[in-house]
Amino acid sequence: MPRRRRPLDVAGCVAPSFRGSVPSTGGVPPTPRTCCPAATGPGWLQCSKSGAVTIVGVIPLALATLALLLAWVAPGLMARQKQFRRAPRASLVAWQAVTLGGVVAAVAVPLSALPLVLDTDEPMARAWVLVPAVLASTAIVARLLYAGHDVGTELRRVRQDHRQLVDIIAGHDGEHAQLRILEHPTPTAYCIPGRHSRVVLSQGVLDSLPPAELSAVLAHEQAHLRGRHDLLLEFFTVVHHAVPSRLRSAAALAEVRLLVEALADRAAVRRSGEVATARALMALAGSRTPAGETGATLGVGTTAPVRLRLLADGPPHPALPAVAYLYAAGSATLPVALLVAAWL
Amino acid sequence: MPHSTSAPRLGDLERVVMEHLWEAASSGGADFEGATVRQVHDRFEGEREIAYTTVMTVLDRLSKKSLVTRERDGRAWRYLPADTREALTAQTMRRTMTDMDLTDRRAALLHFLDGATTDEIADLKAALAEIEGRAADAASPPAARRRGLRRP
């Protein structure tokens, strides 16, 4: 198959003065010119037509760096950019883009190395690069799929068991088919996501919250269900499990969870106003101190203070979401662009 | 797929049967020795169209979920609620709250709030006061406008 690529000169050097006069058969130039000190150097250095020394595999290297940046460095940095919490939707898009970009970059590293060997006439050299490269990419994808299966199966099992239990022990509301009431004085509210989703309230929350605050709580839970926030969290959990444990960032996962809650809080504010939403948060935070204490001892911070602070601080500067969206676009497209560049 | 259509119906029946057992247990008191499939089936006679085998399946499922226990009574099984509804509810509440602290299960259920530590309550109160103060400012417009609004 005739390819557009320049013939790869094994000796590595085509001096500028030879440009145009080099025989297309790819003959070795008589002597290595000053333009190309690498001709005698290591094999990964070679000259381009213009005579500049380039590193073979600059794109695979760039992609590998990018994969590390997106999978390891960026999450740590992003988890510290607290001002972006005020734009939860844009931030979540940025987190998804970075996570997806990291995955694409990692899968693309071996694939981007392929064009380097497809031109060589030595079948052995080709096979030695081709086979491991394809295997490496396949391994990454397989690991992701396995983690996805693992996490997904477990989540669905826990949710189904819990839903079936709640359907039996909890009271049903004639008006809202999704709603279940647990006969218990401790105020609590949560939802069971999935195909047969449920919103579960305790009698305690019904007794202690006035209607406006109750509707804020319901709006929050319905936002989770309608926005399929469970799938979003599942995606991050799967990638979290798939990456090597050294690269995992618990802070990143916690930040995403917080952003999802902040997003649902905004739905609550839209329906019931910020005062009712803030009071509902306060009421449930106050009643749930024991569970919070165990959370604190495990080193897991609670989201209540941050979420109430976000409500108090109000909407962000309009530039903030714009920055997050731009950052998202860059992180998602750069790995793809590099892979395309490697094959051009 | 028959499973997908029968599962919600079975779930509904599980609830009804469980409620019946709880009722029987509470009215029977300490003397309640459980109900056989036949007894449960007879209870719904004329009220619901449930086949005997369906009642058997439902009780079997409930026993697999550890919601009922069963004891041999001659050739039949007697089914008893494993726990009262109140105890089961309390246990479920406890479990969902502790599960929130286990990282892997956190994504299974989405709670309105994951609680707060006693140290955080002060911060919470300050933020709430700020929001309420702002709302109060917005709600009380300048005196002139308020007078205008109050005109009968």
What does this 3D model show about the protein?
The complex is a heterodimer of chains A (344) and B (152). With 344 residues, chain A is of the alpha+beta class. Chain A has ten helices and six strands, in the order ββαααββββααααααα. Chain A has a four-stranded mixed sheet with strand order 3-4-6-5, with helices on both faces. In chain A, strand 1 and strand 2 (53-55) form a beta hairpin. In chain A, helix 6 (229-242) packs across helix 7 (250-287). The longest helix of chain A is centred in the middle third of the chain and has 47 residues, at 123-169. In chain A, 40% of the residues are buried. Mean pLDDT of chain A is 82; it is low at 1-42 and 290-300. Chain B is mainly α. Chain B contains six helices and three strands, in the order αααββαβαα. In chain B, strands 1-2 form a two-stranded antiparallel ribbon. In chain B, a hairpin with a 2-residue loop joins strand 1 and strand 2 (76-81). In chain B, helix 2 packs across helix 3 (52-64). Chain B starts with a helix and ends with a helix. Residues 1-5 and 144-152 of chain B have low confidence and may be disordered. The chains are: A alpha+beta (344), B mainly alpha (152). At the A-B interface, helix 3, strand 5, helix 5, helix 6 and helix 7 of A face helix 1, helix 4, strand 3 and helix 5 of B. Strand 5 (189-192) of chain A pairs antiparallel with strand 3 of chain B, so a sheet runs across the interface.
